[in-house]
Design goal:
The complex is a heterodimer of chains A (about 120) and B (about 70). Chain A has about 120 residues and is an alpha/beta fold. Chain A is built from four helices and five strands, in the order βαβαβαβαβ. Chain A has a single domain, classed as Hypothetical Protein Ychn, Chain: A. In chain B, helix 1 links the parallel strand 1 and strand 2. Chain B starts with a strand and ends with a strand. The chains are: A alpha/beta (about 120), B alpha+beta (about 70). At the A-B interface, helix 1 and helix 2 of A face helix 1 and helix 2 of B.
């Protein structure tokens, strides 16, 4: 199976839902999935934010998130987001890693597909 | 050989497929999984998922009221 990388550029439904809908489909089909959050997406990584996200006609975000994580998906925040939003890692959910751009680019060098939302 | 029923009624795309993938972790080759779902894309999605993951879709039938029943051989 392949590897699919997702980039979330914000914390609005239009940034998060498409990423998690496609990420859960990909990981359910056996792909390796990594979701990278740019600094503008920091608010989405405050504890409980994703779990409480809703959208008319949308699947349950908590369910998608749990599924992606249970099946081995990874979430990474760009480290520039910390200072940009005056937060530290302890202010954010603990199932993410915080990394630099070079690490992310190395991670996805064999990704077949990349989406940006 | 286990035979398991997964009720995915009321769940929206891609939740039924995600539930199947999570359930698949505990199934063995030869096990049978029956899935009930009413999301409109389910019949096409389950076919695509089975083809991609090497499972056998024995059937996917629409039972009225938009409900679908699929049987997958692991």
């Amino acid at each position: 199976m392949g590897k699919v990388a997702f980039i979330c550029n914000g914390s609005a439904n239009s940034n998060i839902y498409p990423a998690f809908v496609l990420a859960s489909s990909a990981i359910a089909s056996g792909d390796d999935v990594i979701i990278f959050f740019t600094p503008a997406a920091v608010p989405a990584l405050k504890p409980g934010f994703l779990e409480s996200m809703t959208g008319k006609g949308m699947p349950d975000m908590k369910d998608l998130l749990e599924g992606v994580m249970v099946l081995g998906g990874r979430m990474m925040l760009c480290e520039l987001g910390l200072e940009a939003h005056d937060v530290t890692a302890s202010d954010l959910r603990d199932d993410i890693t915080i990394g630099g751009a070079t690490t992310f680019m190395a991670e996805i060098q064999d990704a077949k597909t990349t989406f940006s939302f | 050989m286990a035979s398991i029923v997964l009720d995915a009624l009321g769940l929206k795309c891609p939740q039924p497929i995600l539930k199947i993938a999570i359930k698949a972790k505990e199934l063995q080759p030869g096990d049978m999984l029956e899935v009930l779902a009413d999301c409109p894309s389910f019949p096409v999605d389950i076919k695509a998922w089975c083809e991609r993951t090497g499972k056998t879709l024995l059937f996917c039938a629409t039972e009225g009221d938009g409900k679908h029943k699929a049987q997958v051989q692991f």
